[in-house]
Design goal:
By secondary structure, the chain is α/β, with parallel strands linked by helices. The protein has 11 helices and 12 strands. The protein is globular and about 55 Å long. A hairpin with a 2-residue loop joins strand 7 and strand 8. Bound molecules: guanosine-5'-monophosphate and manganese (II) ion (MN). The site of guanosine-5'-monophosphate has 16 residues, from strand 11 and strand 12.
Length: 320
Amino acid sequence: MMNSIDQQIADQLNQNHRILITSHVRPDADAVGSVLAIGLALKNAGKYVQMVLEDDTAGFEYLPKIQLVKQVPDGDVDLAIVLDCSDLNRVGHVLNDYGKPDLVVDHHKTNLNFGINNIVEPEQVATAEILFDHLPKWGLTIDQDVATCLLAGIVGDTIGFRTSNVNSATMRRTAELMDFGADLARIYREELVLQSYKAVRYWGAGLIRLQHENGIIWTSLTLDDRQDIGYPGNGDADLVNILSSVREAEIALIFVEQSQNDVKISWRARPGLDVSGIATFLGGGGHAAAAGADVKGSLENVQKRVILLTKKLLEQRKSE
Ligand code: 5GP
Ligand code: MN
């Protein structure tokens, strides 16, 4: 028998026509892939769908029908769905005219259950993995395009099946998605291997300033780096993943200057450590192994303060 919340969601999707789907600012593959996956499945079911992300989707041109994802909503909405997002703030302005979303689907342990219905499963490696399980229960069909978007979310959030939460069920779902026609090698290459020349030069700017103390490795990317190199994004171009490959590092951190008074921080931690608490304390959120926050202040001050807090976390952990 179907779980009553799945039945309720299936009914809701059935009864409403104009559906808005969104996710977090600075979207990653799980955000874009999940939005497109459920968006395309609902379109195939005859719904009028708006897929909206506040920030642009550069880098995700390899996903099917990516051109359907817009940056501002347009017109009436009967039902709003938020994916891969632990709080409403992180959606940006997309739901300003709508308010509380009808459905939230997420895998962050820091999720605030801010929807009317909330499917929050922190043990899942990606929101896309949750959708894989639930879409059929909501009466929706997984075809090749939907499967490609779901697999992109799984590959992105597990950094190519490398995170410690990957289990045999993830691999079984992956196999099924490949049976639906998702091209794993292509998704892997587009999502994790290929980088633009500018992105790699941007890494270089960060790597020159790399620092290491007592198991913590960190660096920063400045507004000047971006301007000098002409790097178009405002993220770290996944440099944090390179930092976390340093054997000596138990925690890797990156500080990305957003403006004179705003710094985006990303943490990555080895299995057994949990950086989601420190990120939440600073107004952000995330998972035990990967978390982030936006902190007000100059790059120098934020860096000093956050390195100190991160050192404390590691020392505390060592004395336990
Ligand atoms: P990243 O460091 O790659 O931006 O994010 C790592 C994880 O932390 C992702 O799951 C991401 O959704 C979450 N995260 C990053 N920044 C924030 C933030 O400002 N607020 C919240 N709630 N989560 C964040
Ligand atoms: Mn995710």
